[in-house]
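Hi P.,

Sorry for the delay on this. The queue was packed all week, but I finally got your sequence through. Input first:
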Amino acid sequence: DMVQFGGRPLEKAEHHYAIVDEVDSILIDEARTPLIISGQTEDRTDFYKTIDAIIPLLDEEDYTIDEKARSCTFTEEGNEHIEQLLKERDLLDADADLYDIENISVVHHVNQGLKAHKLFVRDKDYIVREDKVVLIDEFTGRMMPGRRLSDGLHQAIEAKETVDIQPENQTLASITFQNYFRLYKKLGGMTGTAATEADEFHDIYSLGVVEIPTNRPVQRIDEEDELYRTEGEKFNAILKAIEDAHAKNQPVLVGTVSIEKSERLSDFLKKKKIPHQVLNARYHEQEAGIIAQAGAPGAVTIATNMAGRGTDIQLGGNVDYNLQEWVEAEKAAGRDPEDAALKAKREQFEAEVADKKTQALEAGGLFVIGTERHESRRIDNQLRGRSGRQGDPGRSAFYLSVEDDLLRIFAPERLDGIMRTLGLKEGEAIQHPWMTKAVETSQKKVEQRNYDIRKNILKYDDVMNDQRKAIFEQRIEFMTAKDVSDVISDMRETTVEDLVTQHIPARAYADQWNVEGLDEDVRKYFSLELPIKDWAAEEGIADEEMRERLMKVVDETYAEKAANIGPDLMRRIEKQILLQTIDQNWRDHLQNLDALRSAVGLRGYAQRDPLNEFKTEAFALFEHLLDQLRYETTRVLFALRMSQSAPAPEAPQAPKNIQAQHIDPQTGRNEMADGDSRPPQTTPSPSATRVAAQDVDPNDPGTWGRVPRNSACPCGSGKKFKHCHGAIGQA
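Then the structure:
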């Protein structure tokens, strides 16, 4: 559907359908954190550095770490110790308590500093590259440049790693993946590993999971897991398996869970003089080349989180990549190969790859080795799925130890004891379907916990989502409307009614009226000096008459202002101010909801349901937002001071082509411009030069000359010129 707006068509924001590749990665793995549009706030570099210097001074008994919940908290002793350290650095007053209300920000950032030091591990959760902390995707092992942790946690990690600390971000808009994709009328996707998450797809997205048979029968042999008592024994077994496969010319792909583990394994292979390639976030640029040759006979490739690499490992190697590499080498030597040479070289590579593929197939195809089980069974299945493609033979095996994170945190505590009881000698392993089943049970526990986290985030976002829909539907309606004067009129009328009701309650005696408060608010919101005290002193006057008198004066004043400015320009000004007010107040509202969300969990200690508490208080905040929209829009419109000389009568002309626009108050960009997003420029008038202060008439913009955009507006509104008459001039 198209609507005509300002002389050009504006398409309605509709979500018809979405087809998602690797749908489990997007709708499930990514869905633990919401999508956020953010803007920078003040720079607090010194504050973060000071907090960072404190954390290493803490003792082990000052905090507890819960690896299962990925959280850490201060103990009673820790609270006293951190309080003492903060007071020594003048971050707390000498007689203050750490948990006083005014110190809530300090408490928050001390907790984030503790998380940065004790929960986030370099080369596993993030890497330091070009003086920046870059997060690593825990599911794909790829870098996520541009992604930042919120609430000051990223800054705490930057302070820990002594790199440049970037300013914190303020949330401008936020939505969960679940609610974003549920906007689409039709939603679907594809992936090789959705079966284990079928319940979540059904519960959250109402999507069924259909399994499509493979193109050719799978010939891959999936071995039972081998469980060792220590990590050292496990690595020895992995090295022996790699040696054996390499000796018979079988290509090997080794999957690890972190950069640290992949580089540790690489060191072992170097000592044994086994040639190999390492693929992880640190060597991201060589990814295509490494994967292209991973199927060559005898190739050994170590990959961190192979899932989602999106490239087939072809047995024997990749003809196109070999040819591309040869062409680049020829060009580097100053030779430009001709078509005939290219064709001949391609045929040569095709023959070589076919021969190597035969060798790889005879050796048993690609051998996939998992050095640990991941938290999610899907990631393990994706790693296994690199082998045995299109009916090729292959083999996969996972090597585990009791010291692995997954088993250490989630498996039964008696596991190590059982292994000792069995009398396993060093280097021996348990390999049994029951053990594989027990490991899968541990993974199911983690998957269920992660599902609960996503479901909990969604419950809170559902509360916000109703408010988000209401605000954005209203905003789109205002953007597409040619005239919002009815909305402005309703806001004006409601503001008058609210003020009168607030200061002159119905059926209250005159001595209970707050006449001074009403007088002050009329001046504040309507910029009017009215004899309200005289009206209130009249015999027999009541709240209804006060409302009618006030409404009459307000309407007359606004009508006069609109006539002076001109109806067309006034309509555009009204729309611009209304949209700017919605945007600014919505941003403030999101900050309030963020603060509420982080604090409401404590209500559980008072035996109250945090979610119900959040619903109640979020609704109250939303009502406050709507009130603020009315008050703020009315106040700004009545604060306008603009005069125009009456134009000479002339013959009626066709209306000019008015372009719709909305200036973002943060960036000055026109959100609705086609292509060029710079704010529209107005042609300076002949008088657009600086004038002496004594010559400026606040009521006559013609006397202001050129006003700097960041200076106070000469009209006396108290706002910057760019947000007052400077913005109006651009409308």
